[in-house]
Write a structure and sequence with these properties.
single chain; N-acetyltransferase domain-containing protein; Aminopeptidase; alpha+beta; globular; about 30% helix; about 180 residues; eight-stranded mixed β-sheet; 5 helices; 8 strands; Acyl_CoA_acyltransferase
């Protein structure tokens, strides 16, 4: 386990899938996840198997409360490109409908995963795609961790009856100083 003071990152287990399914099926979470339908436990199990079969490029974790070992969220470095040393950053806090905030849990869990990516995996770039309406995550990562916009995918998402842009944002190892 990668331990912080209040939270830790541990390997995703099959027993965590019910939590992930329930969190990802929350309407205001799901709209941010490139998922337009309700997920079943079978869907989560198939996804879990695909993660297990691609462990060399997908590092997925359950965020847990250090004191209780209770699952509180999920985070990962996915689709790692070992030549370019880059990974797609996946992150959310499911407990208490948090999604993401500027409080200790989100701050510490994000720092643990970024540190792991840059210092243990020797990544050079951590990036993510966020829809323009996902202002909570955009603000969190740009203000707290200095992620920069790399690109814009115009009208890349259809939500609430209209098309929205996607932003590609990233953090380079050379820019990370937290």
């Amino acid at each position: 386990m990668i331990k912080g003071k209040k939270v830790g990152l541990r390997a995703l287990e099959k027993e965590d899938l019910k939590f992930l399914r329930d969190w990802r099926n929350k309407a205001d979470f799901r709209r941010n996840f490139r998922e337009v339908r309700e997920l079943s436990l079978t869907d989560q199990e198939k996804w879990f198997e695909s993660i297990q079969n691609t462990k060399h490029i997908n590092f997925m974790f359950t965020i847990v409360d250090i004191e209780t070992n209770e699952p509180i969220g999920a985070a990962g470095l996915l689709y790692i490109n070992w030549i370019n040393r880059s990974a797609d950053f996946s992150f959310y806090i499911g407990k208490d409908d948090t999604y993401i905030d500027d409080k200790e849990v989100s701050i510490e869990a994000t720092k643990l995963l970024i540190d792991y990516g840059f210092n243990s995996l020797n990544l050079n770039k951590i990036w993510m795609e966020l829809y323009e309406f996902d202002t909570r995550k955009i603000n969190f990562f740009t203000k707290n961790y200095n992620f920069k916009q790399d690109g814009l995918l115009r009208q890349n998402c259809f939500e609430d009856g209209k098309y929205w842009d996607s932003y590609i944002i990233s953090l380079l190892k050379s820019d990370y100083s937290i």
